[in-house]
Amino acid sequence: MKEFMLLIRNEGDAKKSLSDEEHLAFIKKCEVYIGTLKSRNQLIAAQPLVREGFVISKTDTGWNNNVLVPDREVQVGYYHILANDMNEAISIAKDNPEFEYVPFASIEVRPIKTKEKETAFVYPAKI
């Protein structure tokens, strides 16, 4: 199996409009989703991200440390998964509860490079 990263993105704090009951239902569905992936041995890691932090970039004269603006589109979590191919990874992403509760959610599905062809360097992983 190959490794993939599912990067969960939302516009603004999309879940703040949910009632307490809806938010709890969302969390429980995420737990079921995670449990299903674990039972299939397809989950390496999954964690939500706090809506605060910095975006850093290098310039000719130094560094920019810009505060993350949570009202814009931000990455809100990730799933590090195993899948046979990109189509299976996309299928797994489509089952994510985020789409049921967040109208403008998106999930970026990316294969993970585990080894460099030129040097045979293997990136460290805890699997």
Principal-axis shape: flat
Strand order of the largest sheet: 2-5-1-6
Counting DSSP E segments of at least 2 residues, the number of strands comes to 6
Largest sheet: number of strands, sense, barrel closure? 4 strands, antiparallel
Order of helices and strands: EHEEEEHHE
Structure description:
This protein is an alpha+beta fold and 127 residues long. It has helices at residues 20-39, 86-94, 98-101; strands at 2-11, 43-48, 54-59, 62-67, 73-83, 106-111. A four-stranded antiparallel beta sheet has the order 2-5-1-6, with helices on one face. A hairpin with a 2-residue loop joins strand 3 and strand 4. The longest helix has 20 residues, at 20-39.
Name a few traits of the molecule:
35% strand, 3 helices, single chain, 4-stranded antiparallel β-sheet, two-stranded antiparallel ribbon, 127 residues, 6 strands, alpha+beta, flat
Question: Could you provide a short overview of the structure?
Answer:
It contains three helices and six strands.
Structural topology:
Layout: E1 2-11, H1 20-39, E2 43-48, E3 54-59, E4 62-67, E5 73-83, H2 86-94, H3 98-101, E6 106-111
Antiparallel strand pairs: 1-5, 1-6, 2-5, 3-4
